[in-house]
Backbone:
């Protein structure tokens, strides 16, 4: 589960699990069972990324190769874990298109995905929407995660 830049971390774990970047002598399965992303930074592409997150995560002058590698919408495969997304349409910090593009890539790869977009709330909306977790917990119950 990840919020904002933490959503990038969570979506990275969910899309980069096939390669271990540290020793894994027991061959531990690195694939998460599911991902929950709340107003996530997904892409590192110039037109849509949150600049501060990209600078902090991959540097101020990343190569196109690094931008592509850490644009997690480009890393979705059929074995990407099931996904819950939520975002506010009027988010001025992390554009909702991060979630929309990710949703579309997941859907096209036939990964189960559910997305809830609130019309208003901007970034950090969850603190102003009591009950936003109700549909999340319903999703978790439907998927035998609780």
Residues:
């Amino acid at each position: 589960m990840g919020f904002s830049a933490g959503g990038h971390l969570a979506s990275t774990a969910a899309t980069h699990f096939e390669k271990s970047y540290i020793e894994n002598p027991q061959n531990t399965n690195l694939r998460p069972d599911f991902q929950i992303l709340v107003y996530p930074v997904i892409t590192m592409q110039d037109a849509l990324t949150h600049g501060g997150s990209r600078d902090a995560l991959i540097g101020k002058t990343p190569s196109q190769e690094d931008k592509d590698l850490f644009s997690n919408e480009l890393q979705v495969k059929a074995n990407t874990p099931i996904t819950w997304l939520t975002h506010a349409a009027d988010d001025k910090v992390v554009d909702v298109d991060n979630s929309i593009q990710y949703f579309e890539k997941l859907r096209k790869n036939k990964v189960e995905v559910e997305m809830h977009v609130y019309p208003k709330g901007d970034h950090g909306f969850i603190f102003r929407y009591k009950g936003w977790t109700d549909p999340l917990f319903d999703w978790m119950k439907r998927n035998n995660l609780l």
